[in-house]
Amino acid sequence: MALHFYGGNGSSIFDPFAELSSILACGNDQSKQMARDASAVANTRVDWLETPEAHVFKADLPGLSKEEVKISVEDGRTLQISGERKKHEAQKSDKWHRVERSYGSFLRKFRLPESANVDAIKAQVDNGVLSITVPKTPKPQPRAIPVE
Q: Rounded to a whole number, what is the distance in angstroms from the first to the last CA of the chain?
């Protein structure tokens, strides 16, 4: 895969997904599936916000129900969000004019910091936005120890 750089003001930005269209155009079935999966991962955008009380993850997952999304914690501290966008099954009489929405499996992993309370994670889906809240464990407060 060639590395592509672009930028109009003298800055260069690495674009790891620039070759996806050429892979889809001339690759074999396995490379086409790999490119579609990479595209699905790239198009699953996630915001991670840290507040004083929690880590909040928000992912845009339009068209997916809560049953189609899996959230897990692996190895004690790795938050994993996965699922699959199904391809629309067209009838023989249907005629596609444009296909731009990605489909296929997606997977995102985030290494949580030591302060994350993985036993109290909550998740909800609202209007196609998945929100995951990972509360922080309270910091130990200094305490005075009386001398007897």
A: 71
On whether the CB atoms of residues 135 and 117 are closer than 8 A, the answer is: yes
**Sign of the dihedral through C-alpha 129, 88, 44, 112:** positive
Q: How far apart are CA 133 and CA 40, in angstroms?
A: 23
- Given a cut of 70, whether residue 109 has pLDDT beyond it is yes
* Residue 1: pLDDT band with limits 50, 70, 90: very low
Place of tokens 């892979």: 23
Residues 80 and 109: beta-carbon distance below 8 Å? yes
Give the torsion sign (CA, 84, 85, 91, 97). Answer: negative
Structure letter (DSSP) for residue 65: -
Report how far residue 148's alpha carbon sits from residue 137's, in angstroms, rounded to the nearest whole number. 32
Ranges assigned E (strand) in the chain: 5-6, 13-14, 46-50, 54-60, 69-74, 78-85, 104-111, 122-126, 129-135
User: Phi and psi (nearest 5°) for 89?
Assistant: -85, 115
**pLDDT confidence tier of residue 19, bands split at 50, 70 and 90:** very low
Residue type, 67: E
